[in-house]
Specification:
Rossmann fold; 10 helices
């Protein structure tokens, strides 16, 4: 796995998947994972996307194989966006398609709004509303539980809503253990900042073609609630898939990747 050092405090790990024809010069898709995850979360998307596009899957600072962040790290959306932009500069990629899942979709929306010259299209999959009501108020209790029990206990308690009722039991256990490897110090700082981020002002500033994917039974928000913020983004469309999960990128990987592939192809002119 390649490593890039965008700042002195971070060794960022990432993967590049490229199974396109060797005589082509494909565009690039940047995949942004969610909280307590890494680029590995996109395993079900790579076969579909990487046959047509170069795929870059970084581990966000603090997560996966990237450097854990201390409890007092001053998290901001702009810092995370800058990390990703510097990675793409390092790879010599000026413009690219961005896909984000869960909180990665929050980061992706802010990225598209704040760095419009970089983002060709935007796809967000199972992502929270632009402001999660009550999220900040729950942080002290959550962080006390992280200190006491670690991240895996939280992942186990919340995985039912995340993956819904139809996911394979062995898959549920895999996701619990995978997310549970996240450093407590990273999680504590991330939950009280990025997980509570307010991006309402960013939505009208997004100008690139945008696809929003959700399920009709998502625990993050109803379809009507999702449509309300989606319609604030010019040139956007909403796809609603059947199911009760909110980690749509995991539970509907093949369908989500196919919808995204079709969307990018139609908006790459």
């Amino acid at each position: 796995m390649p490593t890039f050092k965008p700042t002195a405090d971070l060794d960022m790990h990432y993967e590049i998947d490229d199974f396109t024809d060797p005589w082509r010069n494909p565009a690039t898709v940047l995949l942004l994972h969610g909280n307590a995850e890494s680029g590995l979360a996109w395993y079900g998307w790579v076969p579909t996307l990487a046959r047509h596009y170069k795929v870059v899957r970084p581990d966000m600072r603090g997560f996966g194989a990237s450097t854990p962040m201390p409890r007092d790290f001053p998290w901001t959306l702009d810092q995370i966006i800058d990390d990703y932009a510097r990675l793409m500069d390092h790879r010599g990629i000026s413009r690219f398609h961005v896909v984000g899942a869960k909180i990665g979709g929050t980061i992706a929306r802010a990225f598209a709004a704040r760095r419009p010259e970089r983002v060709l299209t935007l796809t967000v999959v199972g992502t929270p509303p632009p402001l999660r009501a009550g999220a900040a108020e729950r942080v002290p209790e959550l962080n006390a539980a992280f200190e006491r029990d670690g991240v895996e206990a939280w992942a186990r308690q919340t995985m039912g809503g995340r993956l819904g009722g139809g996911f394979a039991p062995e898959g549920v256990e895999w996701w619990i253990r995978y997310m549970g490897r996240t450093a407590v110090s990273t999680q504590i700082g991330f939950m009280k900042t990025i997980a509570c981020a307010d991006i309402r002002a960013d939505l009208p500033r997004i100008r690139c073609p945008t696809l929003v994917i959700t399920t009709d039974g998502s625990g993050l928000a109803s379809v009507d609630e999702t449509r309300a913020w989606q319609q604030q983004i010019a040139n956007s469309r909403l796809v609603v898939l059947p199911g009760d999960s909110y980690h749509v990128a995991a539970t509907h990987a093949e369908r989500g990747a196919a919808e995204t592939l079709d969307f990018i192809a139609k908006n790459s002119g």
